[in-house]
Amino acid sequence: MNLHEKETRLESLLRELSPVVVAFSGGVDSSYLAYKAHRVLGDRALAVTGESPSVPSSQRDMAMRLARDFGFAHETVRTAEMELQEYRDNPPNRCYFCKDTLFAQLLSLAKERGFATVVDGLNTDDLGDYRPGRRAATERGVRSPLMESGLSKEDIRELSRSAGLPTADLPASACLASRFPYGVRITEEKLRMVDRGEEQLREMGFRVFRVRHHEELVRLEFGREDLRKAMNPEMAARLAVAFKSLGYTFVTIDLEGYRTGSLNETLVKLH
User: Fold this and answer.
1) Is 27 exposed, middle or buried (0-12, 13-18, 19+ CB in 10 A)?
2) Are 26 and 143 in contact (CB under 8 A)?
3) Cα within 13 Å of Cα(34), Cβ side
4) Which of 144, 170, 208, 249 would be a feasible disulfide site paired with 122, CB 3.0-4.6 Å?
5) Assigned CATH for 3-163
6) pLDDT tens digits, 216-235
7) What is the pTM of this model?
């Protein structure tokens, strides 16, 4: 299918699944899905954002901004994954417990309000990475209309540009818990350290990056252009001061640069 055919398929799917609750994080994919559901279904679509310490503050702000500027029906729910021992212990399937908790709340809300389906922003590119959260979606009956319509990440970016969405060219986003190696216990304090660190990088003008938390050591991943900037001796000194002020003892720059799912590399080595 060409892009127009995929978009038409998406519109048809949304009508079939209507009325829908959209799991809306403020990232590239769920933002386009929330926008499209609103355009196709009007008040038969409700975008819902999970409030959690593991959600980057920039992403929460973007979700609120989009809902306001594009007129989505939008609500937030407080998620409770931090109350789960299985989540805090940070096993390789941590994402399953987070998504299962979120989807349970969204399904409960949908049932109370008379919505037929909960939908998420999974796209076809997501099928190639280790994503235990997808199992939670399958078990809960959550649908993925972007993926089911054959839309890739680049397709979604192109459609988002056409729609005038400010998320069109944003770097890929993920929850803050994805910055921790498996087995490193997750706490609200550590999540705040990572969030503040990424906000500081944003304020310094960096665009593509991840703050990877290794307890007393922080490993900074940068996209290709940002890596050149980070390796400048003066900037490297600024980074050291900034991250030591957050509580880290050692500040490192990953020479391989930013790549999604880099912490899953340890799983490959184990198997």
Assistant:
1) buried
2) no
3) 30
4) 144
5) 3.40.50.620
6) 999 999 999 999 999 999 99
7) 0.90
